[in-house]
Amino acid sequence: MKQEGKVIAGGDPLAKIIDEKKLSLCVECGKCVASCPMAEFYDRFSFLFSARGIIKKALLGLDILKDSNIWFCLECDVCAQLCPAGVKYAEFVEDIRQLAISEGITKNSVVCPRCGRYYLPLPTVERLKEIMAEMGLAGEFIELCPQCRRDDMAEKLAFPTGLVKSG
Ligand code: SF4
Ligand code: SF4
Hints:
There is one protein chain. The protein is mostly helical. It has 2 domains: 2-102, Fumarate Reductase Iron-sulfur Protein, Chain B, domain 2, CATH 1.10.1060.10; 109-163, no CATH class. The chain contains 9 helices and 2 strands, in the order H-H-H-H-H-H-H-E-E-H-H. It has a two-stranded antiparallel ribbon with strand order 1-2. The longest helix is centred in the middle third of the chain and has 14 residues, at 89-102. The protein is globular, with a radius of gyration of 18 Å. It binds iron/sulfur cluster (2 copies). Residues 32, 35-38, 51, 73-79, 89-90 line the site of one iron/sulfur cluster.
């Protein structure tokens, strides 16, 4: 109810998120890119999916909800912690992904096959599977959301799920 009111009062929900997360305060210092773990995590790190790249496209008014590059960020919040301008980039990414999903743009959102909830972006899952394969680990371990993974593990160990602490 409150969320619906915010969207209507603010007009364009994407513009409202851009404003709330202070993207226009960016001074293009580059600290977010220099500190970002995506450069290590992805073997094809690109300006197009860096914080700077996405911020630039958002401020230019491009339709970033349809841009698959918004699904690479790991939402670690390191960039926001270091940003001298107070840009809340990880929160921005979280919000625009939720907005994209609510508008039916779901091809890069991975849902848990057990509970049906979105839990990770597709590029992250694909890269995690590559890394796990390189380490000789089974990729199916990340195919359930954290809660369902705990429940699944409890069932495999034959413990009643009600006895497993959540959170
Ligand atoms: S650290 Fe902040 S001000 Fe600097 S480029 Fe990144 S978002 Fe912009
Ligand atoms: S929140 Fe995203 S863009 Fe910022 S440092 Fe973490 S991975 Fe990089």
